[in-house]
Amino acid sequence: MSAHCQVTGKAPSFGRRVSHSHRRTSRRFTPNIQSRRYWVPSLGRTVRLRVSTTGITIIDKRGIDAVVADVLARGVTI
């Protein structure tokens, strides 16, 4: 599965690796994706999310119910 955060939408970005001699080759910056299980009281079940570390912080601040409601409103399957 690709490295996409279900909360923030972060995806891999691309850039260049530059050596000491300034030869440029392609590289990929991947977000730090973690697989987490959360208990969602409004749904009455646990939900498994693939979230970035920024997404985990957002869940801690806003609460899992609000975040899951936003994710479902965007049409992301959980």
UniProtKB/TrEMBL annotation:
<dbReference type="InterPro" id="IPR001383">
    <property type="entry name" value="Ribosomal_bL28_bact-type"/>
</dbReference>
<keyword id="KW-0689">Ribosomal protein</keyword>
<dbReference type="GO" id="GO:0006412">
    <property type="term" value="P:translation"/>
</dbReference>
<dbReference type="GO" id="GO:0003735">
    <property type="term" value="F:structural constituent of ribosome"/>
</dbReference>
<dbReference type="GO" id="GO:1990904">
    <property type="term" value="C:ribonucleoprotein complex"/>
</dbReference>
<comment type="similarity">
    <text>Belongs to the bacterial ribosomal protein bL28 family.</text>
</comment>
<dbReference type="Pfam" id="PF00830">
    <property type="entry name" value="Ribosomal_L28"/>
</dbReference>
<dbReference type="InterPro" id="IPR037147">
    <property type="entry name" value="Ribosomal_bL28_sf"/>
</dbReference>
<dbReference type="InterPro" id="IPR034704">
    <property type="entry name" value="Ribosomal_bL28/bL31-like_sf"/>
</dbReference>
<feature type="region of interest" description="Disordered">
    <location>
        <begin position="1"/>
        <end position="27"/>
    </location>
</feature>
<dbReference type="GO" id="GO:0005840">
    <property type="term" value="C:ribosome"/>
</dbReference>
<protein>
    <recommendedName>
        <fullName>Large ribosomal subunit protein bL28</fullName>
    </recommendedName>
</protein>
<keyword id="KW-0687">Ribonucleoprotein</keyword>
<dbReference type="InterPro" id="IPR026569">
    <property type="entry name" value="Ribosomal_bL28"/>
</dbReference>
<feature type="compositionally biased region" description="Basic residues">
    <location>
        <begin position="17"/>
        <end position="27"/>
    </location>
</feature>
